[in-house]
Amino acid sequence: MATTELPVLTAKDFASDQDVRWCPGCGDYAILNQVRKVMAKVGARRENTVFVSGIGCSSRFPYYMSTYGFHTIHGRAPAIATGIKIANPDLNVWLVTGDGDGLSIGGNHLLHILRRNVNVKIMLFNNRIYGLTKGQYSPTSEEGKKTKSSPTGSLDMPLTPLSVALAAEASFVARGVDVDKDLAATLERAAAHRGSAFIEIYQDCNIFNHGAYQYATDKDTREDTIVRLEHGKPLIFGKNRDKGIRLNNAKVEVVDLNSGVKEDDLLFHDEHDEKLAFTLSRMRYPEFPEPMGVFYSVEDDCYEDLLEKGVKQAIEAKGRPSVQQLLEDGETYTIAG
After folding, report:
1. Contact criterion met (CB below 8 Å) for 227 and 182
2. How many helices (H) and strands (E) does the chain have?
3. Residue 244: helix, strand or coil by DSSP?
4. pLDDT tens digit string along 97-123?
5. Is 73 within 8 Å of 99 (Cβ atoms)?
6. Model pLDDT, residue 331
7. Which pLDDT value is given to residue 189?
8. What is the C-alpha to C-alpha distance for residues 200 and 210, in angstroms, rounded to an integer?
9. How much is the average pLDDT of 59-74?
10. Rounded CA gap, 260 and 236, in Å?
11. What is the CB neighbour count within 10 angstroms for residue 50?
């Protein structure tokens, strides 16, 4: 029997025919380009790939991918994505959300898709602002943020998305920056992971919150303000690789490697250590360099696999269900004419 060899797809094959309607200079463009390249590199098939989104600037993402896609409603994308994965577990499902859509009205849905370990890859674009509705403060905006909806400064304490994901039992947690060279590698790791993969992406909104992450994107400063995570390796950073992170009385601190501190004294990254991952998620600039890369990665049973197993066991024990029998079983009522 003859077999047809599938064509090798390129990044251009994943670009739809839709005009991209983000503001010129928006960080979403960089993420879109990275995702298209990653899809080609990991051998994704357009007919087996689905992008799901909620509401917000980032949620236009499915229009720009030449795959299947669903632009759903505010905060409910995790529920739709879960349904898609349950209905067809062979599909590769990606969820695109933002700090408002995913952490405000959609916070509850996000928690449950993570704790269930549904095999969905979740990209949360975090620009620390509501961009689509013209610049109100979001759940990740810094305390005291002055916007149209908080002219004297926001009173809210910001959420830390990675800490939330870890607390919700996500099996893969990572962070990247829209224009950083390592984002693609992080997305590749997420694509290969079986289970709920959560990737926070620092994304610049150049209209309403431009420069929020300049410390992590400026080529002259970023190597001093971020630390790149590598499993099994010490946390070293700085332009000259002369700074490190170590534990001192159970607290992290920055040390100078030129002051006699040795690499063996530093904190070594372990992707399987949930407590370490949470500690790293609490490191914030400017007190600390902010970690980038994979914080946590473990293998566990996926929700859709457990569900399929449970259905098979129920059928074996009770037989294949009948809708008619379900309607007629139990107490029934006859209404006289």
Report:
1. no
2. 11, 11
3. strand
4. 999 999 999 999 999 999 999 999 999
5. no
6. 78
7. 98
8. 18
9. 97
10. 14
11. 22
pLDDT class of 312 with cuts at 50, 70, 90: very high
Residue 142's Cα: distance from chain center in Å? 20
242-247, long-range: CB < 8 A, 24+ apart: 243/289, 245/283, 245/288, 245/289
Overall pTM > 0.85 = yes
Q: Which one-letter amino acid corresponds to residue 193?
A: H
Q: Which two tokens stand for residue 40?
A: 């080609």
Is the domain defined by 11-212 classed in CATH 3.40.50.970?
A: yes
Position 2 scores a pLDDT of: 64
| Residue entry with tokens 């209905």 | 87
Outline where DSSP puts E strands in the chain: 49-53, 68-71, 92-98, 120-126, 172-177, 197-202, 226-228, 236-237, 243-248, 251-256, 290-297
Q: What residue ranges do the domains of the chain occupy?
A: 11-212
- The amino acid at 220: D
Alpha carbon distance 169, 165 (integer Å) = 7
